[in-house]
Amino acid sequence: MISSKLPKIFYGGDYNPEQWDQQTHQEDLQLFKQAGIDIATVNVFSWARNQPDEVHYQFEWLDELINSLYESGIYTCLATSTAAHPAWMAKKYPDVLRTDKDGRKRKFGGRHNSCPNSPTYRKYSTEIASRLAERYKDHPAIVVWHVSNEYGGDCYCDNCERAFRVWLKTRYQTLDALNTAWNTSFWGHTFYDWDEIVLPSNLSEEWGDDNTNFQGMSLDYSRFNSDSMLECYQLEYDAIKSVVPDALITTNLMGFFKPLDYFKWAKQMDIISWDNYPGLDTPVSYTALAHDLMRGIKNGDPFMLMEQTPSQQNWQAYNSLKRPGVMRLWSYQAVAHGADTIMFFQLRRSAGACEKFHGAVIEHVGHSNTRVFRETAALGSELQTLGDTLLDSRIESKVAILFDWDNWWAIEKSSGPTIALKYVDQIHKYYKAFYNRNIQVDVVGVDSDLSAYELVIAPVLYMVKPGLADKLEQFTQNGGTFVTTFFSGIVGESDLVALGGYPGELRKLLGIWVEETDALLPTMRNQIVMNQSLGDLSGDYECGMLCDLLHTEGAEVLAHYGDDFYKGMPVLTRNTYGKGEAWYIASDGEEAFIAGLMKFVADQKGIQPVLDTPAGVEAGRRVKNGEQFIFLLNHNAEAATVELNDLQVTNLLDPDHTGQSIEVPARGSVILSAPYSS
Amino acid sequence: MISSKLPKIFYGGDYNPEQWDQQTHQEDLQLFKQAGIDIATVNVFSWARNQPDEVHYQFEWLDELINSLYESGIYTCLATSTAAHPAWMAKKYPDVLRTDKDGRKRKFGGRHNSCPNSPTYRKYSTEIASRLAERYKDHPAIVVWHVSNEYGGDCYCDNCERAFRVWLKTRYQTLDALNTAWNTSFWGHTFYDWDEIVLPSNLSEEWGDDNTNFQGMSLDYSRFNSDSMLECYQLEYDAIKSVVPDALITTNLMGFFKPLDYFKWAKQMDIISWDNYPGLDTPVSYTALAHDLMRGIKNGDPFMLMEQTPSQQNWQAYNSLKRPGVMRLWSYQAVAHGADTIMFFQLRRSAGACEKFHGAVIEHVGHSNTRVFRETAALGSELQTLGDTLLDSRIESKVAILFDWDNWWAIEKSSGPTIALKYVDQIHKYYKAFYNRNIQVDVVGVDSDLSAYELVIAPVLYMVKPGLADKLEQFTQNGGTFVTTFFSGIVGESDLVALGGYPGELRKLLGIWVEETDALLPTMRNQIVMNQSLGDLSGDYECGMLCDLLHTEGAEVLAHYGDDFYKGMPVLTRNTYGKGEAWYIASDGEEAFIAGLMKFVADQKGIQPVLDTPAGVEAGRRVKNGEQFIFLLNHNAEAATVELNDLQVTNLLDPDHTGQSIEVPARGSVILSAPYSS
Amino acid sequence: MISSKLPKIFYGGDYNPEQWDQQTHQEDLQLFKQAGIDIATVNVFSWARNQPDEVHYQFEWLDELINSLYESGIYTCLATSTAAHPAWMAKKYPDVLRTDKDGRKRKFGGRHNSCPNSPTYRKYSTEIASRLAERYKDHPAIVVWHVSNEYGGDCYCDNCERAFRVWLKTRYQTLDALNTAWNTSFWGHTFYDWDEIVLPSNLSEEWGDDNTNFQGMSLDYSRFNSDSMLECYQLEYDAIKSVVPDALITTNLMGFFKPLDYFKWAKQMDIISWDNYPGLDTPVSYTALAHDLMRGIKNGDPFMLMEQTPSQQNWQAYNSLKRPGVMRLWSYQAVAHGADTIMFFQLRRSAGACEKFHGAVIEHVGHSNTRVFRETAALGSELQTLGDTLLDSRIESKVAILFDWDNWWAIEKSSGPTIALKYVDQIHKYYKAFYNRNIQVDVVGVDSDLSAYELVIAPVLYMVKPGLADKLEQFTQNGGTFVTTFFSGIVGESDLVALGGYPGELRKLLGIWVEETDALLPTMRNQIVMNQSLGDLSGDYECGMLCDLLHTEGAEVLAHYGDDFYKGMPVLTRNTYGKGEAWYIASDGEEAFIAGLMKFVADQKGIQPVLDTPAGVEAGRRVKNGEQFIFLLNHNAEAATVELNDLQVTNLLDPDHTGQSIEVPARGSVILSAPYSS
To answer: Which annotated residues bind Zn(2+) (chains A, B, C) (predicted)?
Structure first.
């Protein structure tokens, strides 16, 4: 479990008493108790308070804060305060300020505002992390160390440019290798000196969000930028670890956050934590997928839900209230997908600046007589009852979806064949086919071990990095079912095309050759015409966006196109490979097609749902020590009944209501326990 | 009246003979006479002509112009020529050039191009105003002094940054006070030195039009920028006044122009003047509202319509012709709302540059045989007949709508709860309910005296400045009816939330507590379900955008929500307060609801329309010395008949057509006079 | 013909073996042979390879390349490699880097990246052209010299600013003349020193794509920018000619490419070449028009189709495949309109960077067993059969459409009356009326000789340059039919309005006076009501966008408006002028109206289609030595039959299939020959 000091699901969140007077703080402590809150994340944005100038540090306020919380039974998640540099630092050392993609030197302001390659920033952020570690290393209140906050953004300053060249030298060793990787002979961009290389920005090779002349260069910049921030994180991490070797260190991630390769980051984190901010119109399946990604980057380990809002956000276009029950529902959804904490941003709502309309446990009115507080306190009480029951339980899955940041960057930086292709949308489409049936899915990276899975899905596996094709062949050879789609197997890790016929390194495994890929206008559609029934799958389905024109080389054709000059050509193929099968879906099919096909391949492998539930009711399972915990999450605005089919269960939150048929209220959550053998 | 020299509605407009040769000018003088034109605004953009270098000034051309006009019976509105600096000045003193919000130093070009804190600009603009005053102080042609032109825009240069710090020191005295006002402890932005403060721009705290991290800082920048330009105006004003103490000085405003706080500006202006440029699709009620604002900022004093186009504009996307009759109709609409002049931009149409397709009295064809000229001349003739009849008459109103620039800025810089909320739209919605019934409205500021009104409407009174709540309580206590809406009473003058429960300082007056505010997606609607009939108001109405969830604390509930989890909660309340009533409308209701409710509250106070008229026919009233002037303005494309109900009238423009029933032609205007006692 | 060395339609395209190894190059040579390819454009982007630093040049690779191609029977179109400067040059001489319209100095990257007024760029681009000329002057493989590539873009650096002032001094001689031309007295922009003039950019007079405060200045910048690039071209041209006097020199143009005045460029080019990239949804009539423009800028001379894609593009939003047959169809469409070459970008598809998804003859798979290769080879074979049959044949037309870059720039930089007016759209509307009937059209410039035409159409002839009105009067006087439209005759060459009544210099010819021009909102429409039938034209037609309100001065009224306050005013007039007629269309009519009217005026002059064909089947004619070549191009997805009406023909590509009725397959092309007398 995260901390033996607090053997339960942590319940609390960000707390910024530096914005308030002492009396308010005392009231807060009472209210926290009332709400069952037992952890507070503090010191997130206090750098200017901690270090008022270059020489002096003042932590007395923090001592008092941590002590007063601890005396009230509240543990501390201690942030390092480096998420926004002080104004004096920006004035004295402008190198801490970023230069944006348009080449504009920023002035002091905002957050995520420090250049990751600023010598000043690196020096002082490490220094303060070190001082915090020294000061609080023995404090019994500290359960987690929280480095910076929501790393993100990018920088194009001269320091970054120089650091990029160093990063490139390390990667490529020689300019020849670099010139080859980037294909610089195209447009005569050959570099004869490392110092001729400039950052790819809106002033050089890029324009807008995802347009570049040189994909290889831009891809390396994305890697470099992610690595630069990771180095900043690592410097603070090391500073803490050198003082507190057993510190549990994290930084809060943001789900599908494109700029940072979280698979790489996860390796340097003791525990994953993340901030979950769905909107009123975010599909619940998308939230579920994001949780699974956050679990997947650290091999299935339980993670921290570091932030969610008790009700409203402020930065969306339309910041709706969370309907009654939804905060609890989405909290348990997080737990169902692997969270071992439920934490909020924030505990008390700010009175000024841009987040003053962001929801909080304690609203501006300042007392507990609010719907939001009551819902928070009710959940707090429930979590105290649960104790350590769920902690450290894990999710078992036979299905893996492959996700890769490099692939994401590369697909969306591509010039052609279509601007309509969005990687995460494709991942979500396939994920949803399992989610809707309560089949749990692991999201895995290209370095992950696949041997425990029956089914591996890799939508739009455009980039096949060294070794991946072998691993997928091995997986299939051994009996696994592999599924991939159109626009796969096109390039290697530098975005250079795998010559000799698409899908390149996957060609043998899939038993096909893709000759051409048609890009359809948004108004155009084609059809997937099934050659035979596959389970529920029969007849015609719509497809569009991209249509591969392929020839089989050993694979079996299961469906063909219904229209256009490639009418009759294969659109769905299956290749027997060793003991397994490799499927190829040549176009972007409609939801019913994907759902039907995924059901077919899952059925083939005997993969069963956690439970069959009515539409809109999610069922998830966590497992520990021969016991399973089944979560029934009713996302509907009406109650629903779930049949348990002879499963003998205990209703953990409501022991009096059990039986073979469980009614889950509108937006309600039920947790059942039962014996389990996998 | 504006000038005893010209005791009638001034008729004329901008004239730029420096673009033309002498012969054209002589032709113009003839045509002006033919059109009944008696005033010309000159010297608006002649700085480069007046001052060809740093040392020399040349006004001889202006002498001749003013004289030749005067000899033709045309008075002068004399501009100071500082609305665009000369090219030589930009080259020699780059400090006159602005830096834009993206940090880009401008080059010479455009107009509104001078940095308001440029020492060079301030020195030379004052100097030329002074020289003009000296030269023309005794000239009998001058009736109005016109400082610069349409002040606007903003600047982010180093001079402005330094001036901002000085402005802040004056406002806050201490950094502690400033840090508190801006809540800088949020995100650790604490300032330890005034010089650490940078302007809020796209390089620091802001992005786009209305997004900022620190509302308090951005609000202060808006105030500072408005004040900086006001100082420039004031410098020229003082330069003129010190030479010509009885000069009548103005600068032309632009109605709902967001960057400048015209209530503050009006205090420094001898008379208000403004430029009215509705498009073909601008609601006539919106134009009426803008006139009322321009009258309201100077306590109801008559104002100058300084500019309108005789027909077309050039800067709109689609520059439609004014249909026959519309120029006259909209001219009289201005007069009906308080204008004592009717002036055009411009008298002769330019041959080159960006305004060459802007309409003018004299078109490119150069003669009088055009529809536009004929309509202009007909109105000129009519105005001569009217003489001083209408001058100095005033509008009497029992209804005030509160408008506040600070509130405008603050609402639209807010991060959350919705991007759909636009302050002026809300003002217009409530205004229209009165406009459509011919009930005249004063638009007043938060410093205005409210004691003369029966009804005060303050839509979205988000910011309640010190003293305002007391004033509104006093107003209601004494028997007035006060109406406000959702998202009111939230913050104080620094955009810091009024803690302890919304609507903050208005809570006692309104007798309610707003617990939460839901923001609806654009596709979502709720209903206002009336608990009882209120006049014509009964049954259900649509509402949306924002929905306050409120609890009454003494107020009576008159309608409740029809949908969502807050179905049944109050959406319309009325609180008896002293001798008066305070109403609260908790959501954005549809037009029929607002119309019905405003009729109900007006009826309660016995507030009567000027006249009942058919739809699309506006009726307005001005009053002087026991006489009333009733304007019937038919905005329809068909004739309409207005019943006068025993009112004994004189038809001022068409004495032969009178009676108890007046037919107003399509797009026609009628002015009636009758005895009056208020 | 282009070259006596290769007396046939050149077949080949861009080839970049510097991106490939030697073995691949050898395979390419085999594949080229297989595909009937006989020309390769090389050295387009090889500057960095040719000149690795400031001192050294290395052309050995190019020697080998040209030789190996030549040994395989492939001629060379030799580019000068200056289309993108080397990275080392950007680093050492930043003056080669452009400054963009926002004032941002570019860093190294992209192509079209050299400042046209950079001394370094001019020096080294001339130097390398010179060295190439010296090295290859006697090489038998070279058939065409290709300077740079697709000139375009703009620059706003200090070097350009200084050069602009020099350009202006040359044009205007005195500042007085310039101040008058630009009407700088408007907004007081009078210049007293040439050095006060700054470039019109987003930092001075412009914003966005087509907005400016001073049209005259912006228009001159457009001319200057086009001229600056033309000077760069000319420097390389002269460098080659001084060494190789009989060199055939071109640069590849881009059809309706707004930044460059191709009529002016054409004068400096030995042969026109251009790159044709229609999308799946580009109207075929638009492609036809672009070909006719490219033929028209050089007085009807045959041109080179320098680039087209064999199948896909990469830079469009949706890069569809060219359907089977379409590549051949569009190739022959080019020939039908005057092309004497069919060339591709490119011969082998790149493996990396932004064009790797741009189609090529040899796809990534690297062999010939692809649909694209087969279609390419089939056409190659066909072209060998055709030999020199078609070469140097010309198009004869009795109809000219006037096109003018200055007019294009001026119309779209106009502030008012509507943003909806797009010049090329209007040109295309009128062109299409002839295209759909297989009446061939010449696109001519304002300097062209019109005497050979029966019919001259000048849609939206907004700018009438000196001498043009006289020429049009002369043309009509002599019996020609002249047609123009709304918003014509408004300004002269400096965008100064022709005073005294629109349409200015065209007023006499057209016999009308336009008093006003109404701009309609996008939702508004009016009607053209025919006063009498004109051929098929009768009844009512829709019109909109702009509506001129005009009075006849001798012209006959043939149709009137059906709506609005100008209902009944003329909308279509015809003025008899000498032996001819001048027509005026006062509003933007619907397609059926334009089609009917153009048919009527063509019928009047006895202008006949090449052939009558079913809808979607284009018929074109080229003529040489008493023989005509008729192209039947079926753009439909179904076969169509064309009746030849007693014409005795030879089917050139399929001699066995001939007769009086020719079936053209879906997307098929047929070329017939027959005797001809014009």
So the answer is: 115, 155, 157, 160
